[in-house]
Amino acid sequence: MEEGESSSDKRTIYNEHGFMDFIFSWSIQDILDEEFFKKKIEKNGLSFQSIDHYLRSYRYLVLEETRATLCSSMELIYQAPYGRVVGLKLVQTFNKKNDIEMDKPFKNKLYNLKIDRWENRFIHREEPYKTLPGDVMVLADCKPESANDLQRFGRMWCFLSIVKPEDENDGENIDCVCFKVTASKDLDLDELRNKSLYIVFLANVGSNRKIWTGLHMTSGNSKLFKQILCTDEDEDDVCPSIQQ
Q1: CA-CA-CA-CA torsion for 226, 227, 233, 234, nearest 10 degrees?
Q2: How far apart are CA 239 and CA 229, in angstroms?
Q3: pLDDT averaged per 10 residues in sequence order, the chain, 244 residues
Q4: Which end of the chain is less enclosed by CB atoms within 10 A, N or C?
């Protein structure tokens, strides 16, 4: 940890400024609702009250784009890559102390997940599907053919986010795929042990996550933002684009 950096600061950075928390808080209805962010998205003008006002004006746009992407994936969920879960364990400790990705303090619990193999890997793809950090998936006690399947009474489902990509060969079965995930809710492993579980790929939100993080990184960059937003080179003149 760098000097002057608190553990809470580090946790905020690694929590991606709440980006995945937003996604994890959405219901199926929220994702399918095209009006979900309509009242929160403001029409961007040519002038802004502050740097924070400028950045905030784009944050809901990023969330709306993410929602729309997941909505499109939900509509085609019957075609998405999926796998049957054959192993699900809570990660108690990190195996690699020098692994930067695994040393991050996650707000949500971290799980080891294993599937027997990927199905539908080549649907609309030139290359077979392979997990990447930022992939959002659905874990469910059925193989959903539509969003309605997840909304049926008594169904168990939640969102998953890939933290560490897959290891295709776990030493037992060359078809098995293992990776680490966080879940949108705590999983009752005892209750799920006797259920047939499936994971279904929805979309990768890594690019939007980076944009979201960038829209929160104002500390130490205020001068840069002023230069971007102001067209007047004379620092003594009033900036026409932003008011301080």
Answers
A1: 30
A2: 8
A3: 34 60 94 90 65 76 95 95 95 50 60 92 77 94 95 93 74 76 93 94 94 74 61 45 44
A4: N
Q: Is 182:163 a contact under the CB 8 Å cutoff? A: yes
Given a contact cutoff of 8 angstroms between Cβ atoms, the answer to whether 23 and 212 are in contact is no
C-alpha span between 70 and 64 (Å, rounded):
10
- Alpha-carbon distance of 107 to 185, in angstroms, equals 11
CA distance 71 to 59: 18
| Separation of alpha carbons 238 and 244, rounded Å | 9
Pick the closest to residue 111 from 198, 159, 183 (CA basis): 183
What is the longest distance spanned by two Cα atoms in the chain? 70
- DSSP states of 181-206 as a string? EEESS---HHHHTTS--EEEEEEE-H
**Half-sphere exposure of residue 84: CA atoms within 13 angstroms, side-chain side:** 5
- Rounded-to-integer distance, Cα 123 and Cα 76, Å: 11
Instruction: Give the pairing of strands 198-204 and 110-115.
Output: unpaired
Do you know the residue count of the chain? Answer: 244
Q: Are 203 and 124 in contact (CB under 8 A)?
A: no
Q: DSSP readout, 108-161? A: SPEEEEEES--BSTTTT-SS-----TTEEEEEESS--SSHHHHHSTT--EEEEE
